[in-house]
């Protein structure tokens, strides 16, 4: 799975405006909706918030990957935001996050959903890549970083 083929500059926000977990998730869902990638914004938002109630998607190292499966998308979609100030996300390491990558998938497409989560997790293990992402100042720069990293 090549994330740079899925992630579009129109679905990247640098910096995020929200100051808490719910507002950040809403902001990223709104980006997907503005890009005409959602069939129903409310269903999409509820899917992500419901998943978040089960267990926080703050995976540590300043990263959160809120995600959900629902009938509000036709295919896997991704939105990404970089927070100017760290945000409390109830992360497993207890630390706030700067990088938030939101995924939504159709209910009947488990494979791509799991592959995307795994791919993002692997990329985020690279501390140098994470640091570059955190310092990115534009959506295009974020997308270029993903493309460059995936072409290594």
Note the main attributes of this structure.
152 residues; 5 helices; 42% helix; 22% strand; globular
Give your account of this protein's structure.
With 152 residues, the protein is α/β, with parallel strands linked by helices. It has a single domain, classed as Mannitol-specific EII, Chain A, CATH 3.40.930.10. It has helices at 21-34, 41-54, 110-124, 127-135, 139-150; strands spanning 12-16, 58-60, 63-64, 67-69, 77-87, 97-105. Strands 1, 2, 3, 4, 5 and 6 form a 6-stranded mixed β-sheet that branches.
Please give the CATH architecture.
3-Layer(aba) Sandwich
Low-pLDDT stretches: none
Q: Work out the radius of gyration.
A: 14 Å
Element pattern in H and E: EHHEEEEEHHH
The main sheet comes to: 6 strands, mixed
Please state the average pLDDT score: 94
Question: Termini distance?
Answer: 14 Å
**What is the CATH fold-level name?**
Mannitol-specific EII, Chain A
- Give me the number of helical elements: 5
């Amino acid at each position: 799975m090549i994330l740079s083929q899925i992630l579009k500059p129109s679905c990247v926000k640098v910096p995020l405006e929200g100051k808490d977990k719910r507002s950040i998730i809403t902001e990223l869902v709104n980006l997907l909706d503005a890009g005409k990638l959602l069939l129903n914004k409310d269903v999409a938002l509820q899917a992500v918030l419901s998943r978040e109630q089960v267990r926080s998607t703050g995976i540590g190292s300043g990263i959160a990957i809120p995600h959900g499966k629902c009938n509000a998308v036709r295919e896997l979609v991704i939105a990404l935001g970089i927070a100017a100030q760290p945000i409390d996300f109830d992360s497993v390491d207890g630390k706030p996050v700067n990088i938030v990558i939101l995924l939504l998938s159709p209910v009947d497409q488990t494979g791509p959903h799991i592959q995307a989560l795994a791919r993002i997790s692997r990329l985020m293990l690279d501390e140098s890549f994470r640091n570059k992402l955190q310092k990115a100042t534009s959506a295009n720069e974020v997308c270029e970083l993903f493309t460059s990293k995936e072409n290594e």
